[in-house]
Amino acid sequence: MKKILFTFLLLTETCFGQSTRFSPVGDGSVYNNGNVATTYVVAYASEAPAGIEGDLQFASFDASPYTSIYLELNLASWPLQSTPLYVYGYDNASGTLSGADYNAGTYLGQWNVPLDLNFNQEILFDVTSFVQSAQGSFFGFELQVHDSGADLFTSSAYNYGIPPALIAVIPEPGSSALVALGIGLWAVVMNVSLMKPRPRKN
After folding, report:
1. Residue 149: what pLDDT?
2. 8 A C-beta contact, residue 67 and residue 128
3. Which tens digit of pLDDT belongs to each residue from 141-195?
4. Which of 63-72, 128-137, 158-167, 175-184 bottoms out in mean pLDDT, i.e. has the lowest?
5. Which residue range is the domain that position 193 belongs to?
6. How large is the angle between the packed helices 2-15 and 175-195, nearest 10 degrees?
7. Are 5 and 18 in contact, with CB atoms under 8 Å apart?
8. What is the CATH number of the domain that holds 88?
9. With 0-12 CB in 10 A as exposed, 13-18 as middle and 19+ as buried, what is 156?
10. Same domain? 182 vs 115
11. Strand duo 68-73 + 123-126: pairing
């Protein structure tokens, strides 16, 4: 009986999807004059020396089991002042923010964040291909805006309960997995039924 239940639990865990949250090892803002601030993740476009980009660095991990990996952010100051965000990725990061990180990444895409974004409304940007191709011990992301105005997002230090993260997802089961789960459930029920003591005939 124990063996049957163990098999069923293992099958259930395999069939249903799950996600893993990876926290940054360093995050904050990098100025184009070399200064670094680790308060909020800020993207601010203006003339030098006030140009700022938001930077987040993560330790590398085995990304092969995951079919989708997202960069997750949460607003730190309302309202959002500039959209879209321009996302860049850089491999072989140091694990600690520095002035050398400014404008160091390769362009990954445009993040069309709605201007009416409010607090506690997490936003996601797909970074699957970049994370799966990263080779260094650390990798990072840069957030820039091209219009004037500052966009402030939470950081590990100041986050109101929702810090930034990478969300790595193993997908929900397909039809074949659900069929297998159904067969497993049926097998458990049938075996339990067969193991029940039956009354003897006199």
Report:
1. 81
2. yes
3. 999 998 878 899 999 999 988 999 999 999 876 544 544 445 544 444 444 444 4
4. 175-184
5. 1-17+172-202
6. 170
7. no
8. 2.60.120.230
9. middle
10. no
11. antiparallel
pLDDT of 107 higher than 50:
yes
Q: Are residues 134 and 105 in the same domain?
A: yes
Query: Is the pLDDT confidence value at 7 over 50?
Result: no
Regarding whether 54 and 123 lie in a shared domain, the answer is: yes
Alpha carbon separation from 37 to 104, 144, 154 (Å, rounded): 17, 15, 13
Distance CA 55, CA 58 (A): 10
The residue assigned the tokens 């193991």 is: 195
Share of the chain above pLDDT 70, in %: 74
* Residue 52 bridge partners (DSSP): 31, 44
**What DSSP character marks residue 199?**
P
Alpha carbon distance 10, 4 (integer Å): 10
Kindly state the average pLDDT of the residues 10-26: 72
The DSSP H or E segment spanning 37 is strand 36-37
Phi, psi angle pair for 183, to nearest 5°? -65, -40
**Count of domains observed in the chain:** 2
DSSP-derived 3-state class of residue 33: coil
Do 130 and 179 lie in one domain? The reply is no
181 plus 127 within the same structural domain: no
Q: Are residues 52 and 130 in the same domain?
A: yes
Q: What is the C-alpha separation between 126 and 167, in angstroms, rounded? A: 9
